Amino acid sequence: MKHRAVLAVGICLGTVIVPVLSQAQLFTPTKEQMVEYTAQNPFERFSDGRPKIPDALIERARGLSAEEVWAVLPGQGFRNQYADGFKVLHPEKKLAGRAFTVQFMPLRPDLESLINTRAKAVGIPRMNNQVAIDMLQPGDVLVVDLFGQVEGGTIVGDNLFYYIMKTTRNGGLVVDGAIRDLEGISHMEMPAYYRDAHPTPISNVVLSGINVPVRIGKATVMPGDLVFGDAEGVYFIPPALVEQVVDKADETHIHDEWTRKKFDEGKYKSSDIYGSPKDPALKREYEEYLKKRLEEIRKNNPK
Amino acid sequence: MKHRAVLAVGICLGTVIVPVLSQAQLFTPTKEQMVEYTAQNPFERFSDGRPKIPDALIERARGLSAEEVWAVLPGQGFRNQYADGFKVLHPEKKLAGRAFTVQFMPLRPDLESLINTRAKAVGIPRMNNQVAIDMLQPGDVLVVDLFGQVEGGTIVGDNLFYYIMKTTRNGGLVVDGAIRDLEGISHMEMPAYYRDAHPTPISNVVLSGINVPVRIGKATVMPGDLVFGDAEGVYFIPPALVEQVVDKADETHIHDEWTRKKFDEGKYKSSDIYGSPKDPALKREYEEYLKKRLEEIRKNNPK
Amino acid sequence: MKHRAVLAVGICLGTVIVPVLSQAQLFTPTKEQMVEYTAQNPFERFSDGRPKIPDALIERARGLSAEEVWAVLPGQGFRNQYADGFKVLHPEKKLAGRAFTVQFMPLRPDLESLINTRAKAVGIPRMNNQVAIDMLQPGDVLVVDLFGQVEGGTIVGDNLFYYIMKTTRNGGLVVDGAIRDLEGISHMEMPAYYRDAHPTPISNVVLSGINVPVRIGKATVMPGDLVFGDAEGVYFIPPALVEQVVDKADETHIHDEWTRKKFDEGKYKSSDIYGSPKDPALKREYEEYLKKRLEEIRKNNPK
Amino acid sequence: MKHRAVLAVGICLGTVIVPVLSQAQLFTPTKEQMVEYTAQNPFERFSDGRPKIPDALIERARGLSAEEVWAVLPGQGFRNQYADGFKVLHPEKKLAGRAFTVQFMPLRPDLESLINTRAKAVGIPRMNNQVAIDMLQPGDVLVVDLFGQVEGGTIVGDNLFYYIMKTTRNGGLVVDGAIRDLEGISHMEMPAYYRDAHPTPISNVVLSGINVPVRIGKATVMPGDLVFGDAEGVYFIPPALVEQVVDKADETHIHDEWTRKKFDEGKYKSSDIYGSPKDPALKREYEEYLKKRLEEIRKNNPK
Amino acid sequence: MKHRAVLAVGICLGTVIVPVLSQAQLFTPTKEQMVEYTAQNPFERFSDGRPKIPDALIERARGLSAEEVWAVLPGQGFRNQYADGFKVLHPEKKLAGRAFTVQFMPLRPDLESLINTRAKAVGIPRMNNQVAIDMLQPGDVLVVDLFGQVEGGTIVGDNLFYYIMKTTRNGGLVVDGAIRDLEGISHMEMPAYYRDAHPTPISNVVLSGINVPVRIGKATVMPGDLVFGDAEGVYFIPPALVEQVVDKADETHIHDEWTRKKFDEGKYKSSDIYGSPKDPALKREYEEYLKKRLEEIRKNNPK
Amino acid sequence: MKHRAVLAVGICLGTVIVPVLSQAQLFTPTKEQMVEYTAQNPFERFSDGRPKIPDALIERARGLSAEEVWAVLPGQGFRNQYADGFKVLHPEKKLAGRAFTVQFMPLRPDLESLINTRAKAVGIPRMNNQVAIDMLQPGDVLVVDLFGQVEGGTIVGDNLFYYIMKTTRNGGLVVDGAIRDLEGISHMEMPAYYRDAHPTPISNVVLSGINVPVRIGKATVMPGDLVFGDAEGVYFIPPALVEQVVDKADETHIHDEWTRKKFDEGKYKSSDIYGSPKDPALKREYEEYLKKRLEEIRKNNPK
Known about the structure:
- The structure is a homohexamer.
- By secondary structure, chain A is α+β, with helices and mostly antiparallel strands.
- Chain A has 11 helices and 13 strands.
- Chain A has helices at residues 21-24, 31-37, 55-61, 66-70, 109-121, 129-133, 158-168, 182-185, 239-265, 270-273, 280-300, and strands spanning 9-10, 17-18, 82-84, 87-88, 95-106, 140-145, 173-179, 192-197, 205-210, 214-216, 219-221, 226-229, 233-237.
- In chain A, the strands form 3 sheets. In chain A, strands 3, 4, 5, 6, 7, 8, 9, 12 and 13 form a 9-stranded mixed sheet that branches. A two-stranded antiparallel ribbon of chain A has the order 1-2.
- In chain A, helix 9 (239-265) packs across helix 11.
- The longest helix of chain A is centred in the last third of the chain and has 27 residues, at 239-265.
- Chains B and C meet through helix 4, helix 9 and helix 10 of B and helix 6, helix 7 and helix 8 of C.
């Protein structure tokens, strides 16, 4: 949509230059646009402007649960950042990484022709899923809006899934659409969330945007969001709220520890202890426990 | 997305100038972008670049059926231009007009703040559904992507529906979302296609694009498409194919006339006459009938 | 499936001979098989063995309601003869006629090739929906098992619908699949029950049987069944039970008359009168009313 | 549940005494309990304690739309009072009346035996739908929780529907379940909301409560609520809020009048006039119009 | 609903007295009412009147399968005691315990206010899920009617799930609604059946009854029922039928043993052996085997 | 349907003769008919005419994935041979075997009486699921069309499942319907695909055909098809295409090996290597690798 910006993305595993993609793509933002979209980002950015949540925070996020995200986001006005109803490849694994978004639309030849004409002008022979996949970075989660399409909505099979796993270093995949080669993929370790598996290759769609805001279920995802998934579903957390979420989660973990220790003693009704202790002495005991444990944890997780 | 273009849209019912909307909107195209999106348009354009299928063709399109559109589009590679599953306000009325598209996304405060900051910079106090509605032209059909949301996905109630009816001169509405005030709306004559009615006002969404390509069901709609609807569903026809569709439909109408006349004679099995007559004499009879009737029709519909 | 029988069906509107169809069709029964399938039929038969419920009974059946059929069938062990969930073309019209059944299966080329080879051997160029439609008789209801397929499951458009209407003299259509040209069809008077309308022509299926037992929803339909439909759904009544159903319905109609007359008097609670009057005097009154009215009705409907 | 209270309900059309039903019923409240349930009711009560919204208010409520109810209820903390997804018998008619609630549960013989033993003890031979129906009063709407059951969940057929229409004087029916004899019922004028029609009689359920709080969809309905329905769905309005709702609706009607008059002038964009006029002169004009029209209306609707 | 009874429930893990809950709750039964509801119970009762199926029978029930329950219940007129469509936490574990039922309704402020006023009057600050949870006993299964609500319908998260597991000694949970903290819960051993997991805390509902008859899917559950679950779904078995069910299951287990032994011999068609052996010698062999094995089993399971 | 053929099926585990079943069954084919149905079969046949894909090919098919089948079938015109949406008993196991098909229809007493009369005439006391099960051969997969019925649509419980496992030597089961005794079945090793589990025994259906073409989802299955299933779904492959499918899959396996080896080197973008290498040197490298590996594989799998 913008005609002059040059997007020079260093590809992690090779030396190839991805050319001026914002010229080639219908909705792909320039670096200035990306910065404007994500103005509240408190962290560094990739060379294309996408927010780069620090690796250490992503690692801490792996200890979250969906409930701990929920404890912060709606209170900050972010009520639509959760998507569920997925099939989950490894429900016992947590997903945590930076959103790399891709948008598809139902194929129409005039739109496809426009997009491929633009692509050719910058040296990309044909705009397809691999153009986006080849731009992935370590720590990325590929987030794909395929508007729920299953037949022909298969973003990857086992070979490209393997490539993504290698390139993102086990980042992950969230697709509002399908995957193929489920049998082969099920032996790979990368977390993945998908609507269904289907044997058809991707078809009858056109790639309309890379790293644009996309819709997954009833959530809007921005490039650079922290993507967090557990057995229940997936959360998309704006970079500006990530630290608050993981800090609050530390307290929740300690609260859970203490609560269950008390339940194990077998002397209390649930309402004596939970949500918060009613007895002043217990309350004090809890607060001291919280303080001590937080200090221990924070020592191990220096900011 | 583009920062310099000025979009001066003459509003039909007043004298107000819509300011530089492509600066204010996330995905709203400049005139140059609009022309590029719809490069195959054979007709004139509005001042913002949107294709303007001639009124006469729109009137002829009102005689179409969905099957007659289907008879042309897939053969030209356009297999996804049909959407159904709507509630239809007046199934006995045909819908025909030019697509004016609007896209919404699930609300997130950072995105909304970005959009409203941009809007204010060009003099629009708040970006909402009325900004788009105030841009409608006679002959337009408002096509709204609200990603199927019903509660809070109500694009208009009866007052704004009334305004659209007046402004578009009975153009029409297609919303992948909801309407409210169904009772009041049901007394108005404008054709409308919607997923459901709900008493909530529009909420929890953000307007992310005006006259951008949008998804309605499994169809991609471009601004300026001919929107055609009957009791079955809605077709979105690229301007470049409109003439071919209505010409082909003339033949189909004549074929139907002749076929039923023959069936009324009671002398034939269905397969003697339909799809096409098998007997050479009948075939000749049909071809002469077709030629004569086409001439009569074309006299009344000069190009 | 049988190799020698010759099925000479006189076609009502023409003089063409339908050739040995039971040789051509995968599951089409011979006359002997048809008689065996429908051994309990108490009425005459068509020349191909299909039961021919008398026209007078069909006319009386038009006065039924679905509840009156239900009042008899389950008690006779027929618990699965009802199908609903259809779109109903003219909900205010009653459907009543003799089942002419057609079965389709998902296309596979080896099956299609087998069927068309057999068809050609008896002079039918290609086995398709019109082969069945050309066999319809006055009073028939075309009952089509298209296993719920909508896209490509369109048994007829408006031209063939018109033909069926003329040939069956407003018999009717029940399709566990779709129709096309809904707009055109909606102006025709014949009752029709269908899952949905779609613009595609029939495709990706193969005609596998004519006048075989078929499944419609969770009901098994035999050729020659009385097909009865009202605004709720469709009943398939074995010929042997038709008389019992319409006789019982006469009593129900009289019971309704009397019950509402009593309710109109405003002197009774519902339970005084309905299901049956509790007061002995009222009971006697009702029984006399029933007897008198039955005599009047039977005079007009001599068996 | 309570053992001594005597519920003497005068039945409108007869002189029969409904015996001590709260003894017979599992959950049927005594008069004291009913008053406690509905303590905020500002109006008179029936002899069994059920709130009796005045007839005049009910008549005014017939002019409401679902949106006008929504404009008041959520702001008062009542966010769950709306139910939709019904089939609507006469979508062009408004439903307005006092809730008379009935609750059913899936049949289990021990529960049924308990209920019928209690019923017999107070002279009711068998507890069934007619026990409740015989208690209906003019102006009542029968609200039935049949937990969505369609087969066997048919609260009435055409005879009892007719009785309800006569007894409640066109009050109405809302059933989270089914009706039977749709064909016969469709000729009667009383508004009705139901999930589906089915030919089976009511069966496999047990009547567990009369005039208890019930669930309809995701709404809780209390006996004596104002039940309001239009083409969209049904609202259950607590008596304490009815006056506020209809008063606010008067203003909305006037606002609609004025808005459309302005739109008809063709001089304004929608946002100049709607939601509220922006120009101070227009604002004044509207306020004067509102005042004048309110006075006219209030003259005709004295409190 | 009743004003005098005092419900003194000994809480297993503490010494706190649950006050007169039947005064506080809308539908909570008194001891007399509980006894009346469950009059056919052949076993002892808890101090609040709830039937107490003996521990030994519950242990035997853990060897059941859903089919073995089905083999007895419908024949006794209990056709609606089965619910399925749940997500199952540990499908490989069997659920067996005594039903402790809780009913919720959609929130309306007048109802909530009534309930909390009553609760305060007996010393409960606020009526919520923990009031019920604190009443659980060893061997109980918490059965919760949340009318299928998922968002906001989350009866417990991992802390309260842990408390229930400890208090009921691995009893179990069946909720026609949701749970939260699935990730944490999935590491705990207690069997649980739920519609879905969601990150929201419980909200927008009001607790309307404890140990009242509730609806789970299409089943009515009474307090004190034996709740049995396997990988297929959940059965609710009235105390009076428990012994018959487990006795009959012993025979089924022996029949399965013998049948498979015979199949392993490889000399028989399935119909020679199953449902029952046709050959008189085999029949005798089986009957002797049954008798011998029953004796062995009964020795280990003295009544 | 045919009256003279004698179907002498040698039962694998016993010596019993299955009598003239094609006389007994509504749609069961004679040997001549079976040969005609499956005329393109390149392999040997069973004594009843059913194609017998060689054991060695079935073993090779166990290495397939659904995608590899898809790579061949649609290109040969077989676009409907895939069914999914099943619950899968052992998703980690592959299903491969010869289709033995069974068709059921909703029960109607006249049809059942006809079928059982025929059955008795040839010595079968009652036509039921065990008649079909007793005909199974080693390597068979039982494919059952129960039109999606779950309650009462339970083709087998654990005893008959065990029998099938023994008789077919772990062949498999695909049922468009249900199973019962899921708990018991889940410990058995045979692959199975079913819509759901339910405790009811099979009922309210009638067995209408053995080894006839059946519909499973949107696929037509012929007796003797290769049934292949993995974690995604089930494919039905005509015998004539089996060899082509497994040969092509060998190439795909090699291509996968090479592609991942290259990805592991970390020097390439995905599009350098996949779908096919773009660099001529890499292309050559791949072709040599393919040739060498194919030779190795073919040595181990001599035709």
